[in-house]
Design brief:
- The protein has helices at residues 12-16, 25-32, 119-126, 135-153, 208-215, 232-243, 256-276, and strands spanning 3-4, 35-36, 42-44, 66-72, 75-80, 84-85, 90-92, 98-101, 104-110, 113-114, 117-118, 164-171, 177-184, 187-195, 200-205, 295-299, 304-308.
- With 315 residues, the protein is α+β, with helices and mostly antiparallel strands.
- It has one domain (3-306): Aminohydrolase, N-terminal nucleophile (Ntn) domain (Glutamine Phosphoribosylpyrophosphate, subunit 1, domain 1), CATH 3.60.20.10.
Length: 315
């Protein structure tokens, strides 16, 4: 069976040993979903980066993103919205966050600009000289390519080093489809999260809506005062109970069309919920940071195909 994981961009192996009964309250909720799953695996990339679930730490950079990756046995699905925001306003509904590089698909989330250029322009520079068919090779090359402008703008020791993440989908030299995740600054080692032999889904960016929907609770649950009153024994009881709220999605059984429909619906649901909600009662005033057209592509063994793709146009 596959481990069901909810991540704040930390190594799973390092965190699995930290789920003891004497753990801190905010770590408790983080570890709730780190239990044995059924036919599926799910990873949340969320707004919490390297702090763990239960700590609300919104990114202090303009991005306004939801990117979703789903691995099915038939291929890899990537989907992303088109909105770009600052902390106070919408900048554009025409940002490109989904790309093809040869037979490889790339979705981005997080920091929107490097060296006063949007990420799409950096991918455009990367594409002509990197047409390898091996997704692992592209992931390594892309990481090295992006590291140069990222580290120049946000050097080690800088006060702010905002997250910039990539979901990279394609097939390796052995014809196994891989969904790979890379995130700057602290998780830039290419990590295969799911494959066509071990299907599952991951999502990154402003993902509170998806997390509530799939996992059944908000990742900020651990911040509620009631959790500070729980004893270690009570925390150990809460964990498995909250896990029961999670939707049981049989990713092993999903067809490629099912993967497309699910990825598209997760992004669209986020767009619609943010349209009507002004944040939460505990954290009001959130701008609708996900919106615009939803782009979708799939990578199959023999081809990469765009399912939905916005085009330049004149009104």
């Amino acid at each position: 069976m596959v481990r069901t994981v909810i991540l704040g961009m930390l190594a799973v192996s390092a965190l699995m040993g930290n789920c003891g009964d004497d753990m801190k309250v905010r770590e408790t909720v983080f570890c709730i979903a780190m239990v044995t799953g059924h036919l599926y695996g799910q990873v949340n990339g969320g707004e919490v980066h390297s702090l763990g679930i239960g700590v609300y730490n919104p990114t202090e950079s303009g991005h306004g993103t939801v990117s979703v990756g789903i691995a099915t046995s038939e291929g890899i699905v990537l989907a992303a919205d088109s909105r770009m925001t600052t902390n106070t306003r919408v900048i554009s509904d025409y940002a490109s966050k989904l790309f093809d590089v040869g037979h490889i698909g790339i979705a981005i989330y997080g920091q929107a600009f490097l060296d006063n250029r949007n990420i799409a322009s950096w991918i455009a520079d990367f594409r002509p000289t990197h047409q390898a068919e091996d997704v692992e090779e592209i992931a390594r090359d892309l990481t090295a390519f992006i590291a140069v402008p990222y580290d120049a703008q946000f050097p080690q020791g800088a006060a702010v080093r905002p997250p910039l993440g990539f979901f990279i989908g394609g097939y390796d030299a052995h014809r196994v489809g891989r969904l790979i995740q890379v995130e700057f600054p602290n998780a830039r080692q290419a990590n295969t999260v799911f494959t066509t032999q071990r299907p599952g889904a991951q999502w990154g960016g402003n993902t509170d809506v998806i997390t509530r929907l799939i996992l059944g609770f908000d990742p900020r649950l651990g911040d509620l005062p009631i959790f500070s009153t729980l004893t270690p024994e009570q925390m150990a009881t809460v964990r498995p109970q909250l896990t029961q709220l999670q939707y049981n999605i049989p990713f092993d059984a999903l067809t490629l069309q099912d993967g497309i429909d699910l990825a598209l619906s997760l992004v669209r649901t986020t767009v619609e919920m943010q349209r009507f909600a002004d944040g939460t009662i505990g954290h009001p005033g959130q701008i609708p940071s996900v919106g615009g057209a939803v782009d979708v592509l799939v990578v199959m063994p023999s081809e990469l195909r765009w399912i939905r793709r916005k085009e330049l146009r004149a009104q």
